[in-house]
Every structure is written in structure tokens, then in C-alpha cells.
Amino acid sequence: MSASESSSAAGSELTSNIDKSIRVTGRLIELVGSTISAKDLHEVGVAAVDEIRSNIQNEGHVVTGETLASVGIYGESALSVSVGSDKESAIYLEYGRGPVRPVRAKALHFTSKDGDEVFTKYSGPAEATGVFERGVLAAVPRKIEEIAREKERQLQSEASS
Q: Angle at CA 139, nearest 5°, toward 45 and 147?
């Protein structure tokens, strides 16, 4: 598969997940009205955090575990829940970065994934992974669908009582 085919496939998957998110959210609103409880909204955030952490771990992006451990819920209100990380490395993991060369030293110094100490004059670019966006777009519709099914069962139970 060429880079353009891979990029096109990834774009189609994101568009599909966004469309699914919109449809499922509309279904939930039909079932429960225009509000969602703070508990349900929190559960949506927890599901997104779990999916993001799973993506990071399963795709082999863990070196020290700092970024993985920092993924969490960083804000909640009556209308939203914010998930993310407070580590700078999360930005590079999500969006990638360009090549790196030493600025004030003769060499870059870091520890490899294998735990080896590395000194080099150049580090190539890191590709964007999109683990946060993909995690949210996968988890949110799935969790909202689960909540909607539960609300539907509750409504049917109340109607038959």
C-alpha cells in the first residue's frame, strides 16, 4: 500500500468514525432528551481515556510510561469532558515532529526504547500517530451507544410497569 493510499484509508476511517459519532449522539438525544447526566458524560470520558491508553500501549509508543500514565480527564462541565495529557511528549506523539539536531551541544543524548544510551548528531522526523484523536473517535460513539441502549431498556421497563 502506498503512502497516499494509506493516508486516504486513514482519512476515510476518521470520516466514518465522525459520521458514526454524529449519528449515535443524535440517537442518544432522541432517547433521553437534550441532556446527558454528569455520570454518563464522565463514563464517556473514562472510555476515551481507556481507548487512548490502549492505543499508546498496543502500538508500542511506551518508553518510560510517563505519557501513558498522564492520559486522563483534565476537565468536566455540565456539557463536556476534556481528555488528554499534560506531557509535552504527547504533542509529538499525536502530531509528530520534524528532524532534530543539537543546538547547544555537539550531540543529542537520549535513551532508546531498548534502554540503550544514545548519542547522535541527528534524529529523523517522528510521524504523527493520532492516538488521541483515534481513541476519542472510537470510544465515544461506542460508549454513547451503550448508554443509549441502557436508557432505552430503562424506558421500556418503565413503560411496561
A: 75
User: Which residues pair with residue 82 across a beta bridge?
Assistant: 75
Residue 82 CA, chain-centre distance (Å), reads: 11
Among residues 94, 80, 96, 107, which one has the least CA distance to residue 134? 94
Helix or strand or coil: residue 154? helix
In order, the DSSP letters of 36-100 are --HHHHHHHHHHHHHHHHHHHHHTT--SSSHHHHH-EEEEE-SS-EEEE-S-HHHHHHHH-B--B
pLDDT of residue 70: 96
Cβ within 8 Å of residue 87, ≥6 positions away? 66, 67, 70
Segment 94-132, tens digit of pLDDT: 999 999 999 999 999 988 878 899 999 999 999 999 999
